[in-house]
Design brief:
The structure is a single chain. The chain is globular. Strands 3-2-1-4-6-5-7 form a 7-stranded mixed sheet, with helices on both faces. Strands 8-9 form a two-stranded antiparallel ribbon. The chain is an alpha/beta fold. It has a single domain, classed as Spore Coat Polysaccharide Biosynthesis Protein SpsA, Chain A (Alpha-Beta Complex). The two termini are 19 Å apart. Helix 5 packs parallel to helix 6. Strand 8 and strand 9 form a beta hairpin.
């Protein structure tokens, strides 16, 4: 099996070089490619990528010609990913890439089809904003109720899944709403495909807004609206089984 590590990037000149060196040198236990999508950075990140990342072996770089949002950057990355397994990695240093290795192993060992990280399973976790914590819990609770799941942390960056998962639905949201849309569509499709979904504890070194955190309360409100939007979504079915809508 082959891994595609996808990295959406926007204005992370300070942290992206450190993060990229770490993942580029890391052994994930299987052959890998890295797909970097710069979402029209304006702080020097784009220039750094052109000078230091573009052209490296096993690395694909795609540039957006305008800022389109994290979800859009992930859509672009998925379209260029060729691995059997896809792992999402943010461009900052809030997450430790070493945590991806056991998540990937759950899939390569044959136990899981989709694996979520969770910041609430006892691993090191920086204490920050109470309203973020409560918002995350509310969003996860509502998604669980509507999809009959037991996620503890749907807003987490770390999601690892088999490439074929993306063949069963389109992704439409271009902002941070990706987390809600992807989770609800995976959960509802899994009822028919019997995908095995796991969670695994990860560490989290969160940032304050002064340190560069981008998501805010408006994204939380939009997430609640997106939950309503996808509450009654169902995969396209034929004979009681989901139909692939992309990828053949």
């Amino acid at each position: 099996m082959r891994l595609s590590l996808v990295i959406p990037v926007y204005n992370e000149r300070e942290f992206f070089p450190i993060l990229f060196r770490k993942v580029y040198e890391m052994d994930f236990g299987l052959p890998r490619e890295i797909v970097v999508v710069d979402d029209f950075s304006t702080d020097g990140t784009r220039e750094y990528i052109r000078e230091n990342v573009e052209g490296l072996e096993g690395v694909k770089v795609i540039y957006h010609e305008r800022n389109r949002g994290k979800g859009a950057a992930l859509h672009t990355a998925f379209a260029h990913a060729t691995g059997d397994i896809i792992a999402i990695q943010d461009a900052d240093l809030e997450y430790d890439p070493a945590d991806l290795i056991p998540m990937i192993k759950l899939i390569t060992d044959g136990y899981a089809d989709v694996v979520y990280g969770s910041r609430f399973y006892g691993n090191p976790h920086r204490i920050l904003y109470h309203h973020h914590f409560m918002g995350n819990k509310l969003i996860s609770f509502l998604v669980n109720v509507l999809s009959d799941m037991t996620f503890s942390d749907i807003e987490v960056c770390y999601k690892v899944f088999k490439r074929e998962v993306l063949d069963y639905f389109d992704l439409t949201l271009t902002d941070f709403g990706f987390e809600v849309e992807f989770t609800m569509k995976v959960s509802k499709t899994a009822k028919y495909t019997n995908w095995r979904i796991y969670e695994m504890g990860i560490s989290y070194h969160g940032r304050t807004y002064a340190e560069g955190k981008k998501i805010n309360w408006k994204d939380g409100v939009k997430a609640l609206l997106y939950i309503l939007r996808f509450a009654f979504w169902k995969p396209k079915l034929k004979g009681g089984k989901p139909v692939k809508v992309k990828g053949g």
